[in-house]
Amino acid sequence: MELSNLTLLNGDIFDVNALGAIVLGSQGNALFQSALLHDFDKVILILHENGAENRLIDHMVAGEFRTQTLRVGRSMLERSIITGDNNERVTCLLEGEIIWDPKGILERLREEVIRFEQPLRERVLFLEFARFLHMHVKSKRYLQAGCYMDSYNCILVALYHWARLEVSEAGHYPMPAVWEQVKNLNNSVYKLYDELTISGETMEQRIELVQLACEFSLMSKMGDCCKWLLDLLRDRKEPCSIEELLALPGLKDVEAELPLVLRKLTSRSLVREMASWADAGGRYPIRYTL
How many other C-beta atoms are found inside a 10 Å radius of the C-beta of residue 225? Predict the structure, then answer.
């Protein structure tokens, strides 16, 4: 599809100052059909410099033909690639037709995801590990409080992040239909998913079984999956407080999980704690180093 066709199809929605544009349509027999296509014939993703979007979403109709247009900043799309928080954008990037890419930005991003090499792979591994750990700990706390449904929900989400972790470790970018990827890897985490959801044991027993497996996996994967964070600490000339770490690029995405990760790394002697000079209240702020 040429740029002129896109402009004619959607009136004046196209901004010639955009960095690029992708059109996503029906994917035929593809495994995963983007939810963005629900009740729409086409989805158009327009990439802008950060903060340059005037409107984030447009819905247009021409006769019986309906389109949904999304405007996304470059850093927002790059963050979605790393975090998986908006995998619909990633689906557009990977499955859509690039129709406007004068600087080759979209093509480079697509190739980076497909190749899934460092440093992208290390960042995804660390983020998924951090979220896996966080949800596992939350599940344990809910179970201790007798809140079985909340514990079940958290351990189910923990398994989801474990699944994304396993796919990443196998050298593949975790796609929206991640459980199909894990199933094809014949991985034990898929069997645990079955155990949690369809086993004849009581809910409490199922949760406890999966929690034990999660605990073992987290301990065995910690060093490799936290390499990106450990390298950040290694490159710092001085020990860092948690506030300083959260100010570093990329760590803001794990603001809720980073305290747990640091405590686990410290308990395994992969990271050292150092007490700073006492503040006015006689407290000793903790700083972290290797």
Answer: 25
Backbone angles phi, psi at 82, to 5 degrees: -80, -45
Q: Tell me the C-alpha distance between 1 and 134, whole Å.
A: 44
Collapse the DSSP code of 48 into the 3-class scheme (helix H, G, I; strand E, B; otherwise coil) and give the result: strand
- pLDDT for 275 equals 80
Interatomic CA distance for residues 43 and 112, integer angstroms: 22
The single residue listed with the structure tokens 């470790």 is 169
SS3 at position 43:
strand
Between CA 84 and CA 41 the distance in angstroms is 24
What are the residue ranges of helices labelled H in the chain?
Answer: 3-9, 74-83, 87-95, 105-115, 120-144, 148-169, 178-185, 188-198, 203-225, 227-235, 242-246, 258-267
Question: For residue 31, what pLDDT is reported?
Answer: 55
Q: CB atoms < 10 A from the CB of 90, how many?
A: 24
Q: Kindly list the structural domains of the chain, giving each domain's residue range(s) and its CATH number in brackets, ordered by start.
A: 3-115 (3.30.460.10), 117-224 (1.20.120.330), 226-290 (1.10.10.10)
Below-70 pLDDT ranges, the chain: 1-16, 27-33, 51-55, 62-63, 277-282
Token pair listed for 147: 């809140």
Instruction: Write phi, then psi, for 46 (nearest 5 degrees).
Output: -110, 125
Which of left, alpha, beta for 217 (phi over 0: left; psi -120 to 50: alpha)? alpha
pLDDT at 4: 46
The alpha carbons of the chain give a radius of gyration, in whole angstroms, of 22
